[in-house]
Amino acid sequence: MRIKNDYLKYLRYTKSTFWSNYLLEKGVPVSDFYYLKKGNTVHIRSIDHSFSPGDYPVFFDGYNKYCWKFIENGFRFVFTENDLFIEIGDLKIKIDTVQELYIINEVFLENTYKIESSSDYVVFDIGMNVGITSLYLSSLKNIKDIYGFEPFKPTFDCATANVGYNTRHMSKIHLNNFGLSNVNSFINLGYDPKNKGNLGVKTVGVVENDGKNVEQIELRKASECLRPLVDKHSTDRFIIKLDCEGSEYDIIENLDQELMLEKFDVFMIEWHKMEGYKTRLDTLISLLKKSGFVVFATGSFDHEIGMIYALNNHSLQREQ
């Protein structure tokens, strides 16, 4: 009965069966729109923009969970002929899927990777995705350089485009179209453009190159890639951000085996639930502690993911 009453309320406001169903389903309150019979469009008051049926579905798909929060926080939606962008301060990010909205919420509102320090840092963004975290970090004054790693070519191309929209910050960001692991190899993986943030070696699995939407990705040993960069910035401090859908275990173990963990000052790791992950998560934390890190972990073994923040004791002493 409540659903029927809600529908009738929307129908009174829109005089359109399509818009009544659509706006109710997407959670757009009647206070935030009015209907224009001429052209069969709705005007969203909070962003002062009119929509025809089928326009910018990602905005409506993310309205109830994310978009209204972004509007309240002063983020600006920009609608071009074919694309949707969001402007946050002087940053501009293209939105193709709701997953980008999720990441923006995680980075800019939940402050998952917020860094406050009197020191300057070089960041290694492993699992760069479409570049949202790298762009956020590039806007921080104490971040000198960012090296991003993204193995999937279509996702890498999105990151390259996003960095290109932000000419003021692009000189800080160095993009690499390969992933980091504990091996050097090429593998074929399934690719879902609507689910770019959840793709990885451990999540989608290796597939034969005879399927639809298959991408060949390159993996390189983390230690072999990061050591030259650490040597290049020998007087700097380093942050590693890891969000690589299960490969975090292989990467940390490789850096430990090559005696490189202690070269970094901060780790920000999104850990993922994988087969045998409880033992591997315990091992990951133990390796960091053994290398002199103070470790803070969120989430539990009942959850699919959680965060680890690890601070090098020597770095903490230098901050004081």
UniProtKB/TrEMBL annotation:
<feature type="domain" description="Methyltransferase FkbM">
    <location>
        <begin position="125"/>
        <end position="294"/>
    </location>
</feature>
<dbReference type="InterPro" id="IPR029063">
    <property type="entry name" value="SAM-dependent_MTases_sf"/>
</dbReference>
<dbReference type="InterPro" id="IPR006342">
    <property type="entry name" value="FkbM_mtfrase"/>
</dbReference>
<dbReference type="InterPro" id="IPR052514">
    <property type="entry name" value="SAM-dependent_MTase"/>
</dbReference>
<protein>
    <recommendedName>
        <fullName>Methyltransferase FkbM domain-containing protein</fullName>
    </recommendedName>
</protein>
<dbReference type="Pfam" id="PF05050">
    <property type="entry name" value="Methyltransf_21"/>
</dbReference>
